[in-house]
Predict the 3D structure of the following.
Amino acid sequence: MNNRRKIVVVGTSNVGSAVVNKIADFQLASEIVLIDLNQDKAWGEATDSSHATACVYSTNIKFRATDDYSVCKDANIVIICAGPSIRPGETPDRLKLAGTNAKIMSSVFGNISKYTKEAVIILITNPLDVATYVVSTQFDYPREKILGTGTMLETYRFRRILANKYEVDPKNINGYVLGEHGNAAFVAWSTTGCAGFPLEKLDEYFHHTTPLDKKAVEQELINVAYDVINKKGFTNTGVAMAACRFVKSVLYDEHTILPASAVMNGEYGITDVALSMPRMICADGIMRVFEVSLTDEELEKMHAAAKSVRSALDGAGIK
């Protein structure tokens, strides 16, 4: 039987450490175990985070570091962050990592699946959709329990960009970014609004004389991730928040609808890839998938995203 409050995080680099500390800050676990080939790094991260639990505002979470995957045996959630990421100055395309990280995912998940078939698996490793497809199709693991953070991060970025334009709380912005977590992500404008106000009325309601430039928003959405990487050196805070949103949905059986990556089963006529769509997340992982109505242009972009991910899979020799 799994421990509802035990979370294992695999990979303790910039993203993994941010995920660990967000989980602790939001008090989403009673035990967090860090797995990394670099035992010194894992121990350092676990020990550093444990020191914060002495604060009166903190929960007394137990932190551990190990390279032994048997700790996954009773975990409720396993978050995979292992593998290299894009570095400043490198080609701005996550799919370039496909071959290397597909092999890492096979190794990591092979070890996880020896000890559990019950934990919900949350993937962050890039290229996210390739990683999600690999672990979903190459192992005998309940597919509904495997999900990638997908375009949740792009959706957060999109809502922030639109909120900045209209000077409103980004949590009032509705709408999704769907498709690939990467350059083929697209804004589903047909799902977008603000606090119940339709998209086409926002300029009027917010007294904007300059009409919303959708193309400019879409370009900013693509550029901003690489701008952060080139200036900061990496991205980790936003995706850690996205991961915690999924953790909370699982932990509290929320039945929350989020844009998550998983293997497509014929939605929009697409198979043999993983992409982000609105999916209902509960204690057992993905409960439902929503094939929301898209415009012809959006549907074309969804198919372009599928082609992009499938090309990366083919290039890495993954069927």
Remarks:
- The mean pLDDT is 94.
